[in-house]
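G., the chain you wanted modeled:
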Amino acid sequence: MQPLDMAVIVAYLALMVAVGSIVAKLAARNSESYFLAGKSLPWWIIGVAHGSSGIDITGTMWFVTMLFAYGSKAVWLLWVWPLFNMVFRMVYLGIWVRRSNVLTGAEWMRTRFGTGPGAELAYLSVVVYALVSVVGFLAYAFRGIGTFTLTFLPWDYPYAAEVYATVILLVTGIYCVVGGMYSVVLNDLIQYSLIFVAAVCIAGVAMAKTTPGQIAAVVPVGWDNLFCGWRLDLDWATKGLPALNQKLFNPIAEGGDGYSLFGFFTAMLFFKGVLVSMAGPTPNYAIQHVLSTRSPREAALENMMMAVVSLGPRFLLIAAISVIGLVYFGPQLQGMGAKVNFDKILPEVVKTYLPAGLRGLVVAGLLAAFMSTFVSTVNSGAAYVVNDIYKRYINPQAPGRRLVVLGYITSTAVILLGIGFGFATTNVQKITEWIVSGLVPAFVAPNVLKWHWWRFNGYGFFAGMVVGTAAALALPKLILGIHPIWMFMGILSLSTAASVIACLASAPEPGDVLKRFYRTIRPWGFWGPIYAALKGEDPNFEKNKDFGRDVFNLAVGIVWQVSMVALPIYLVIRDTDKMLISLAVFVVTSAILKFTWYDKLGPGQMYLDEPQVSSGKGN
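Predicted structure as tokens:
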């Protein structure tokens, strides 16, 4: 690190201290200010912040490795998360969530299931799942920032990465604790500005330092093709990297990714991604951002903004680092032999191949990326403890200031737990696989059913969440080396069976609860008896008739998002034909969504305390 690099990083950290001191007073006013920024921020600011929160160091390191190894076909591996769930929230789910007008995802359970025993169990299961997922994501952040920092600091000793990660989490935690959701949003805006500038600059460096011929010389045939047959058609042994072949083709039990049947597994990832997306935002910072918007309509627009800001710039940065790594870092990877560490690609490229000043900018941007995800995650975890445990069960009349102080305490405790579990993780890919293939599917079945089936009740939700979460914690230990896809399907099957059995073994929720939910949230799905009951009370009541249009917009939106990922990749590798095709697809799908989605958005001002009857036109 040169003095100019250090000056850039110090300037960023000083800015964060100043921002933290400014927003601390705003956040301290009451619990809504601390956890949702008072629901006062415009949708485009929350959208930028939400998109920025998704740009984290650990995920960026993982995507760089995937693009390096799989080439353009890595676009399909984004369904591992799935990164494209934002289009589901943009088209309809963001509106449905925001109509509840609550503070957290657990509180939302009362919107769906009322206040009976089943509803209380559903409520508690979301609180427990949210806290488990928050700690899991913090352990994920811990491992990523430790690996990244180790590359740039000169002291390497046993557990050095863990020590660096601990120090950074504790220092960042101070900023997070005092500022609440205001800290989240302002840090995200600053972080996005840094990442955007860094992405453009590093893409310029990559395009100046490499040529299409150099790239073609170091990658196997087919690396730049977006599509392939049933089997993966890449052979890295011809380029001196047989370790990459082992990564791509070996079974999980032997340390590989197990994606030799690439067509089959990407189809399974797509199926998994659709189900996860249909479940709605997970009970962490994803739902907190949606609930922070000022209206249901702005919740839809916020997710559109999130998609735009999080995909293009992020993958411009990822593509640029991958290309520099391919051309210049390949010999170092070859020298590692069978013990090659692909997590090193991103930090080593930044450290070795970027000019002074830009190196500091990229490091500051990636530190900011870490901070944005970190503070968002901690804020959401504290919200569940304060609002859904303390205020709900211990002191419902607690004054706002006491809730804010408790937010400070619980945020600190969540950080310490994340650090503790971070020490137990081994590498970026392992913790990533557990989150996306273990923890996420535990959430899917009960949350898909709650939207679309009137008969589903709180007992079914509780059973599905408990069995799914328990399976996520136990299955990787019981079946060593299980492929992430099969782990996902196993957990999903157990959770679905538990949800349906418990639901059918107990009574449905009271009719007034179901009617209020259906009238207010306006879902489509299997709600025939509830619709008939409301129609009998009010002959003018109409159900949501937007299912067909929403499905069409989802299909167009997925293609729209794929084009936003492919476009910067083909720009950096200078494949002009594929870049122009991606640009044309983006323009055409954007125009379609303007007429079929944006123009159909209604005012969306529909809350539980202000029930209205929709005409059925628009959500």
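The chain is about 70% helix and 0% strand.

Shout if anything looks off.
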